[in-house]
Amino acid sequence: MIDLHSHTTASDGQHSPAELVALAASAGVTALAVTDHDTVAGLGEAAEAARVHGMELVAGIELSAFVLKREVHILGHFVRADFAELASYDARLRVEREQRMERMVEGLRKMGFPVSMAEVRTIAGSAQLGRPHLARLLVERGWCVDVKAAFDRFLGSGKAAWVERFKLEGEDAIALIHRAGGTATVAHPGSSKLERHEIRTLAKAGLDGMEALHSDHNPSVAEKYLKMAKEFDLVTTGGSDFHGEQVTPGKRPGDCTTTPENFARLRARAASQGGKPTSAGENRSGESR
What we know:
This protein starts with a strand and ends in an 18-residue tail after the last helix. It folds into two domains: 2-83 and 169-271, TIM Barrel (Alpha-Beta Barrel), CATH 3.20.20.140; 90-155, DNA polymerase, domain 1, CATH 1.10.150.650. The protein has a seven-stranded mixed sheet with strand order 1-2-3-4-5-6-7, sandwiched between helices. It contains ten helices and seven strands. By secondary structure, it is α/β, with parallel strands linked by helices.
């Protein structure tokens, strides 16, 4: 099984990179992309664990961006984990996320919910701060039944504690991933409610793939995006988007997968970006980092 979408404690996942890889291996996954939000910090540990389990680790990232004012998530696959520009972007986002979280926490406090930055940081650990960490705090305190309810009530776009974030345009996200030697795939287009004109805009910007197969897509939604992928010559991918049982209940590694044929097509597109696709633990010359 080939699962091209997963998250660790390096961003908003529940499990460490090594734990995630072990869970995926036990589920029968043979190739796994670790695609943490806006960071490649977990790839080194994931690569070591993948070697232990005899699994292929695809170095990845998930960038939050915008296309025609709609939020879209762009998955990077086969990126260079040591690409300096990715590290710089990671550092910039850490500062922005810290400031944004402070504002969301303050907003909740004004509504009568005595949360604190210290509590959010405890949940996040060394990861980049994200809304799911604050959502988990609300669940732990008993104010929301689950993470989804926290987003629906407080943290989703336009909700009571919502704070606008730094906006990276979709074409710039695609370009950054390509400069890092990777392929750019739009994640869960159904969940993002993307329509044909938005997909067309991303395709013109160089989009490589579309995650038509996702655990949140029912058969009719998947079929809609499978047709769009064919229309715009995008490689169809599948991924579980696994964050952990506490964050995304009901999802497991390998729930949605990519066919070997499409995995090979995606790998070929990565090679066309300027070199042989690398694993998370190698640089362009193939030497161990």
